[in-house]
Write a structure and sequence with these properties.
Strand content: over 45%
CATH superfamily: Jelly Rolls
Low-confidence stretches: none
CATH class: Mainly Beta
Number of strands: 22
Number of helices: 1
Shape: globular
Number of domains: 1
Order of helices and strands: EEEEEEEEEEEHEEEEEEEEEEE
Largest sheet: 8 strands, mixed
Radius of gyration: 18 Å
């Protein structure tokens, strides 16, 4: 039996297609498929991790996901996100979260430039969709609105953005809304520093490199990483991220 290992893929290396009317889609990571042993078909909990590009002046289709939650992370550009009947401006660093069954659309009619963004999706268990169960609320925020903290993951600075909705009187953020995901955070490491070396036995994790370059050590493997790389970390694989050669900050998303 093979031991699980990390997978690294840059969005530019995936095969793109046109989807959601006007978006160019790069499917970076997909769920495990019995009939397709591609190393990028590795997700066991999430159901999709993709990069999207939207031409200036265009919009995507209006749609909803009945049994999945989803969020967009804006990498560049400006637009509006329509959630049910309300519009919200989004730009670089914005997160837009959509619970199951909530209609949404990205509208770029007033934006002359291309927009780049990530779409991350996770199926929600049937019991959490049952009548009477609390559902998360749609959210739009920017990472700059969150307060940074240190000490949780070594020398990484962490901005906690979204967290799971639980019966807890002391949430980490003011955005407890996730039903199947555990959390979304942005982290940054300065040159010569690293996060802590740790392991998760109950969740898979994904790093997306936003800026800079460095190294992810996962198990016995060392992976050089740079802007645009996605790092998949299976359960029970110890890992650490280091800024071992970049003069500025190594910044990345942490998806769990």
């Amino acid at each position: 039996m093979n031991n699980p290992r990390a997978v690294v893929r840059n969005w530019r290396d995936s095969e793109s297609y046109l989807g959601h009317d006007n978006a160019i889609v790069w499917p970076i990571l997909s769920p495990v498929k019995a009939d397709d042993p591609s190393p990028f078909n590795c997700l066991t909990m999430a159901s999709g991790f993709a990069g999207h590009s939207l031409q200036g002046g265009k919009s995507t289709d209006y749609h909803a996901h009945a049994q999945a939650e989803q969020y967009y992370y804006i990498l560049s550009g400006e637009a509006e996100v329509l959630i049910e009947e309300d519009r919200f401006p989004v730009s670089e660093g914005s997160v837009a979260y959509f619970p199951p069954g909530v209609g949404h659309q990205l509208i770029g009619e007033n934006n002359p430039d291309w927009m780049q963004y990530l779409i991350i999706t996770c199926p929600v268990p049937e019991e959490k969709l049952a009548e009477g169960q609390p559902l998360g609320k749609a959210r739009v925020l920017n990472w700059r609105d969150a307060s940074p903290n240190m000490g949780v993951h070594g020398n990484a600075v962490t901005w906690q953005l979204l967290e799971r909705l639980v019966n807890d009187d002391d949430p980490v953020t003011d955005q407890p809304c996730l039903l199947a995901f555990w959390y979304l955070a942005r982290q940054a490491v300065s040159k010569g520093n690293a996060s802590d070396y740790h392991v998760h036995d109950d969740k898979e994790q994904i790093y997306y490199i936003l800026e800079g370059e460095g190294t992810v050590v996962a198990g016995f493997d060392a992976h050089p990483v740079k802007e645009g790389d996605t790092v998949y970390l299976p359960q029970n694989v110890p890992h650490v991220i280091l800024n071992d050669r970049h003069e500025g900050w190594l910044s990345y998303l942490v998806v769990s």
